[in-house]
Amino acid sequence: MDGRILDTASGRFIKESELIARLLDARFALLGEIHDNAFHHRLQAALVKNLAARRPSVGFEMLPSDMGPLVSREALGRPVTIEDVALAWQRGGWSLWDIYRPVAEEAVAAELPILAANLSKADKEKLKKEGWSALDPRMVRRFNLDKPLPPDVHDTLLREIIESHCGYNPGEEVISKMIMVQRAWDATMATSMANGGVLIAGNGHVRLDRGVPAYLSVLAPGETALSVGFVEVGPAEEDPSAYGSMPYHFLWFTPRVDRKDPCADFPRTPRSTGVEPGL
């Protein structure tokens, strides 16, 4: 299935041209990824290039909002350069710039607005210490962030967090903070792109059930937000029905990245886990 695109609603494979046409008609195009997969970023870059005609903003999960002035034409008083984005990337603390660069290059070449879409580093630290009172109360109320997630959504997120920690449960206190940060990231990213555009974010953030699309449905009810999940498959995986229930409008299948088993040297102590969503 490598290279094929699945429309999950119909269960049929579609051409890239059809996906682009659908995304062009949507107010929001949410492009997922596995962070270290360069194939995903090359495909994201191609989509940004094809969507540039409608002049969308391009928001990045990887850029916290306090990096916004470094990638703002208004703040800089001149067009944004790729060097500006690289500097914001470095100061924002995200790695893997080389494989993300093609996405940023397409946005810069088309002079599309670039958004530092994520929660600022200062607000993230305050959130971990103070809880929801650290955030804008209007955002907390609008999205009911201080209310529990539906049990099925909470349980799915809990399983993903434990899986991302190699089966280790770091404890209720740490997990509750991780869930809080995940929800705050998604709500912040949705708010940053309320006027429409493209979002570059991990697959976990563009899920329809609990990610940015769920918050956009509150901010912009009735507007179309289409989500593309990028999924790694092996050469023997040829059954699309195994993926049809995944919470995305479209799934784009790509080769797997040859990576070291992340669980091989995983330290199973609460101190080592931190409180980052990691999705």
Q: What does this 3D model show about the protein?
A:
- The protein is an alpha/beta fold and 279 residues long.
- The protein has one domain: 3-Layer(aba) Sandwich (Rossmann fold).
- The chain has 11 helices and 8 strands.
- The chain has an 8-stranded mixed beta sheet, with helices on both faces.
- Strand 1 and strand 2 form a beta hairpin.
- Helix 2 runs parallel beside helix 5, helix 4 packs across helix 5 and helix 9 crosses helix 10.
- The longest helix is centred in the middle third of the chain and has 21 residues.
- The chain is globular.
- It starts with a strand and ends in a 6-residue tail after the last helix.
- About 3% of the residues have low confidence.
Summary, kept brief:
By secondary structure, this protein is α/β, with parallel strands linked by helices.
**How are helices and strands ordered from N to C?**
EEHEHEHHHEHHHHEHEEH
How many distinct domains?
Answer: 1
Number of strands: 8
Task: Kindly state the percentage of residues in helix.
Answer: 40-55%
Rg from Cα: 18 Å
Q: In what range is the share of β-strand residues? A: 5-15%
Q: How many helices in DSSP terms?
A: 11
Point out poorly predicted stretches.
Answer: 270-276
Q: Could you report the average pLDDT, rounded to the nearest whole number?
A: 92
Shape: globular
Spatial ordering of strands, largest sheet: 2-1-8-7-3-6-4-5
What structural class is derived from the secondary structure elements?
alpha/beta
User: Mind telling me the CATH class?
Assistant: Alpha Beta
CATH architecture: 3-Layer(aba) Sandwich
Give the distance, in angstroms, between the N- and C-terminal Cα atoms. Answer: 24 Å
What is the name of the CATH topology?
Answer: Rossmann fold
Sheet with the most strands, sense and barrel status: 8 strands, mixed
